[in-house]
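Good morning C.,

I know you're traveling, so I'll keep this short. The sequence:
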Amino acid sequence: MENNKNIERNSKFLSLVLRHEPGKIGLVLDSNGWASVEQLLHQAAEHGRSMSQEELRHIVASSDKQRFALSEDGLRIRANQGHSLASVELDLAPAEPPDTLFHGTASRFIDSIRASGLAPGSRNHVHLSLDLGTASNVGSRHGKLVVLTVRARAMAAQGHLFFLSQNGVWLTAAVPAEFIDFPAATQP
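The tokens, ready to paste straight into the viewer:
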């Protein structure tokens, strides 16, 4: 049980330093979000967060949302998406989205979304899911769940770009309200 808690703590720590605050431990990310595994492990240990390469590989491999990726040679690591750092560009090629994608959110945000659409907030992109289950899991963390349907292919036809992250999360700069279908229970 303690090992699971340690893995969870280290996963949250990796999310923090690979997505939002690498400077917190003096970590350097390149423009595509990659960091040296050796530097990460060294800097983490210097800041009281020791982990072995084996533990790091286990976290990458076992993350339920596949939040992290190791380079093919295993020498670099990055978060697959969710960055709030403007300096990180994941270097993903635009991809043709399916007809619809989903976004889970809390009911308290519906009026704002209806007025302004979906914005990335502190992140670099709006995150969209291919299926209702994933969107529900994400949205339920923020309050009373509402799942929105995004007419992604219609957006793309109007020139909006979509990107597919390595772990299957769809990313776009913003979603204008006219491309969002709101559940009937949330209609004004």
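Safe travels,
E.
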